[in-house]
Each structure stands twice: as C-alpha cells, then as structure tokens.
Amino acid sequence: MSAPIIHGGGVTEAAAAFGGEPKDWLDLSTGINPNPVSLPDIPVNAWHRLPDRHLVDAARNAAARYYRSCDIMPLPVPGTQSVIQLLPRLVAPARRVAIFAPTYGEYVRVFLAAGFAVDEISGSDQLTPEHGLAILVNPNNPTGRTFPPDEIVALARRMKTAGGTLLVDEAFGDMQPDLSIVPFVAEHYNLIVFRSFGKFFGLAGLRLGFVIAADPVLSDFREWLGPWSVSGPALVIAAATMNGDTDAVQSAITERKAALEHVLHRAGLKIVGGTLLFTLVEASQAARLHAHLCRAHILTRKFDYAPSWLRIGLAPDLSGDTRLAEALRRADLA
Predict the structure, then answer these.
(1) Which of 148, 189, 247, 287 is most open to solvent, judged by the fewest CB atoms within 10 Å of its CB?
(2) Pairwise CA distance, residues 188 & 244, whole Å
(3) At 25, phi and psi to the nearest 5?
(4) Is residue 239 a contact partner of residue 58, using CB atoms and an 8 Å limit?
C-alpha cells in the first residue's frame, strides 16, 4: 500500500509540531458540521447486545426516507472509507478506472495499490470503453464542483453500454438534496451511491455511512464487511437523527458558512470553491498562511498537489470566527 494521505483533522500531530494542547486548537481542517446534533436516548441493549436485526431495519428505513432511495434500502457501513477499500473487488482486473479529479485522494490511492490503471480525468469526454468504473464526487471535495442529476444519469447510461459502473460519492450532498442521484439508482443497476452520515450531523467519530445500489452490489458489500459491521448505538443514532428535524441542522450550517465567508472576504482571501461545509481559498503564500494559523493553534487543510490552496471549515460559533479573523489580520504574507 502506498503512503497514507494526510487528510483533515490530525490536531494531535499539529499540536506536537506547533505547541498547545489538542483541546485548545480550533480545527477548521475538516468538512464536518462543527455543532453536532443532540444524541438520542440509546437503550442499554444497544450497548449490551450484538446489533439486532430490528435496529438495522430501523436505520435502513430511516435512510431510505432521508435519501429518497425509493424501494432500495441503503446499507449501513462503518464509514464510507471502509467501502472505498473494497471497491477494487468490483472491477475486473483488466479494466481501467476513471476518477474525476482533483478529488478525495483515497480513491486513487486504493486503486493504484490494488494494481489498477487509473486515469484522473476532468470531464466525461475523457471516458473510454476501457473504463470499468468511473468515480465522481458530487459536490466535489475540495473544489465544490457539481454535476446535475440529468448529466449523471446520462453518464451512467454511457458506462452501462460498455459494461461499466458509475460510483457517485455524495458525502457532502445533504445540504444540496436536489443534486442527489439517489432517486435514480433503482432504474440504473450500474449506479452506486455513497453517503456519509457524520459530516452533516457532526458525528464523524461515529464512523457511519450508507451505500445505495442494486441488491447484488449491496449483498457483495454486506458479505465483504462481515456480520455486525455497524454498532448498535450507531444504528439507533442514525434512525433517530434521520427521522428528526434536519431543517434546523441545515439552517445552522448555512449561518456558519455565511460567517466563515464574511471573515475570509474581510481578510482579502480569494475564494475559489467549496461546499456549505467548507470553503476553498487560493493564496500564493498558502503554505506560509497555513503555518501562521498553526502557530495561532488554528488548523486548516493544505494540499500537496495544489500548493496555493487552503480548505477552511466552519467554526462552531462567533468566538471561533473572531479567533480566525484576528489570526488572519496578523498574517504577514508580503
């Protein structure tokens, strides 16, 4: 396996390099709701017993309503990263893999490690019949690029003619439900959708995601993951939160995003992309800015492949906004 990718998070390592206690850092390096939803009451049996079927069914039914997957029951998985690791099993070894790039780096890493030929593409015109799998993150991380559902359906049909599969990663799709391709999965057996639970609900530590696909694909993933792959408490939390008031969550995230962009505009930073859970900025001195913010114990996300980019997530409150604004005011990037 190739060297691990440095993702967002990693406050412990940042504190070791720049000082301070991890708990005192302002972590803006991820695309996670900074204000997690309230946890429901979790029955003792959910902790005590192996995950019972009724807990799985309740979570799947809630996910089907929330994601609008029609007759398909989404499969709960222990975070979408767990199923990214399994994707090479879906592709014939002789086929190539196309990945709309730049995007979440684990897709390229996993397929290269499995010995596949990977083409990082920028548009669907670069797809060929040799591609057994195409991967599209929508909205994209970190650029925020989006594709409307009709274009994705057309892409799925094109892949189908060559016996290929289209995977759409909608990890950041909760805030833009009109972009979701999930309602079309039942009509296209070669279409797979990944959904993240923890980003929108602010519970990334729960390690929970969902796969929406035709039954044969879900059966494969279920077998590969093995029994009890998702904990009982995670299933209880998923069912309760997905059946709850998600409008309030969306409103709070929208307010936090507006506050972040206000700070960035006042600092004179150039915004070049993002989603409602993070903003991508471009600066010629991005590396110096990243280090400056680290010295103020504020962590952002830098990119080896795009040294002029920084991804900045949402602060949890006005105090966090003020702390970021003050640190940016003190930055000397001349």
Answers:
(1) 247
(2) 30
(3) -80, 150
(4) yes
For position 334, what pLDDT does the model report?
57
Q: What is the pLDDT of residue 9?
A: 75
- pLDDT tens for each residue of 40-97: 999 999 999 999 999 999 999 999 999 999 999 999 999 999 999 999 999 999 999 9
Write a three-state SS string for the chain: CCCCCCCCCCHHHHHHHHCCCHHHCEECCCCCCCCCCCCCCCCHHHHHCCCCHHHHHHHHHHHHHHHCCCCCCCEEECCHHHHHCCHHHHCCCCCEEEEECCCCCHHHHHHHHCCCCEEEECCHHHCCCCEEEEEEECCCCCCCCCCCHHHHHHHHHHHHHCCCEEEEECCCCCCCHHHCCHHHHHHCCCEEEEEECHHHHCCHHHCCEEEECCHHHHHHHHHHHCCCCCCHHHHHHHHHHHCCCHHHHHHHHHHHHHHHHHHHHHCCCEEEEEECCEEEEECCCHHHHHHHHHHCCEECEECCCCCCEEEEECCCCHHHHHHHHHHHHCCCCC
Distance set, CA 52 to CA 59, 73, 227 (Å) = 11, 17, 11
- Is omega for the bond preceding 177 within 30 degrees of 0, making it cis? no
Q: How many CB atoms lie within 10 A of CB 93?
A: 10
Instruction: Give the model's confidence band at 20: pLDDT under 50 very low, under 70 low, under 90 confident, else very high.
Output: very high
Task: Look up the pTM and report it.
Answer: 0.96
Region 134-141 average pLDDT = 98
Q: Per the structure block, which two tokens stand in for 15?
A: 């504190």
